[in-house]
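fyi for ur records
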Amino acid sequence: MFSITVWIFIVVAVLAYFVLKPKKRTINLPGPWGLPIVGNAFQIGKRMHITMAKWGMKYGPMCKVKLGPMEVVVISDQHVAKEMLAMDAFVGRTTPPEFVLYEGETVGIIGSEGELWEQQRRFVVRQLRDFGFGKSSMESIIMEEVNELGERLAAFKGEPITNMKSFLSLATVNSLWSIVAGTRYSQDDPKLRALAHRLSGAFNDAGENAGALFLMKWLKHIAPEFCGYNGIRRMFADLAEFVSKTIQEHKNTFQEDSPRDFIDVYLKEIKSTTDPSSSFHGAEAAGADTMASTLNWAILHIINNPEILRKLQAEIKEVTGNSRPVSFSDRPKMPYTLAMINEMLRLTLSPFGVPHCVLNDTEYKGVFLPKGTIIMINLHFLHHDPRVWGDPENFRPERFLTPNEKSLVKNEYLNPFMVGRRQCPGESLARDTIFLFLVNLVQKFDILKEPSSEVDLEPEIGFLLQPKPYKAVFLERKL
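which gave:
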C-alpha cells in the first residue's frame, strides 16, 4: 500500500510540475521527436556524430534537439554557421565541464567569454604571431622534435610499432611546451610522459561518454563517474597543478625586460588575472592532442593506401632532391602534401568543436533564440555532407587539387578549426607542426602495414575522433 501511495504521489508531482511551471517561449525549429523529461538524450547513442549527421540530412540547416530540459540548436549548413558565428550574440560559451576545475570557475581561452575572452584571445593571437608562424625559430623547435622522433622510430629497425599515438603525443607536446614554457625534455623523460598523459587525458581518456557533458551538464549529478565528469575533473586538476607549478617557477626567475617564452610574456602583460595558468589548460590540451591525432590518422591512412606514400615521397624528392630536410619555405611547391593534410583535417578532427551559447535574446532568420540557448555546429556532418563532397567517406586528397594535381584548390567548405570570432587561434601553429612532422617522417621512412594485421578505420569516440591502435613498420630509406 505504501509503495502504491508513493508512486501516485510521484506521478501527481510530475504532472503538476508540467502543468504549473511557467511557460517559456520555445524554439520554433524542426527536429526529432523526443520523450518527456529526457527529450532526445536516449536517441543519440554512443556515436553521437553519426546520429547528428542523420538529423542534419533529415531536418535541414537548423534543427532543434532536446537534451533533458535544454533545447539545443544544431547547425548543419556551412553558410549559416559562418553567418551566426560572426555575430556578437553567438560568441558565448556554455561553460562545458571540461573547463571547470572547481564549481563556478571557468578556465582558459576556450571556456571563457566576455572581456576575459577578448583579452586572452588578443594576447594569444599577438604572441603566436610575434613568436613567428613559419619563422626559423619556430621551425627549429619543431624540427628538433621531428629529428628525435625519427631516431626513436629508427631504433625499432623495422619491427612493428603498436603505440604510435604515444610516440606522436610525446613529440608534439614537447614542441608545444617548448614554445609555451621554454622547456624541452628528452622524449623518453618521465616528466614529459606525465605531461603528455595529462594533456591527452584531459579530453579523451575520461571516457567515450564525456562528450555528452558538453550538452547535458546534469549528467554530472546523476552519474559523474560513468559520464566521465569525475575523470575530467581529476585530469584537469592534475594538469592545473603542473601548469601552476611551472608558472611559479617562471615568476621566481622572471625579468620583465627580457621575457624568455610565452609564459613570461603573459606574466608581463596580464598581471591582473587571478589565475594566469588558466590560459594554458584547455588550449594546450586541445592543441597537442589535435596535432598528434591528425598525424596518427595520417600514418594509418598511409599504411592503408601505399599510393599515398608514393605520391608524398615523389613530391618531396622533386622539391628537395632528398638532399636536405623539408622546410616551411617548401610548402608552396608541395600541393599534394597540403591536400593530404586538408583531407586529414576534414575527416578526423572534433565532430562538433566546442558549443556556443546565445548571450542575449536574439532572432535569427525569423527564429527566436532565447538567452542561454546552446548552439552546436554539426562539424562532422559539414565535412561529410554528400551534397558537398560527393564521396565523403573516401580518403581522397585529390579533392583539394586542380585536375592536373599541380595546384591546391581552396575549398570554402573546409573549416576544421571552426569559423567566426571564436575560430581557433592556433590553426597556423597546428598546420605548421603537422606539415613538418609528416613530410620529414615520410622522407626518412617507408611506412608500411605490419603484414599480419588489419587496418580498422572506425574511430574511437571522444572529444576528437581517434584511430584505434594499429601496427606500423618504419623502414629507413637510403637517400
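Residues 348 and 465 are 6 Å apart (CA to CA). thats all i got for now
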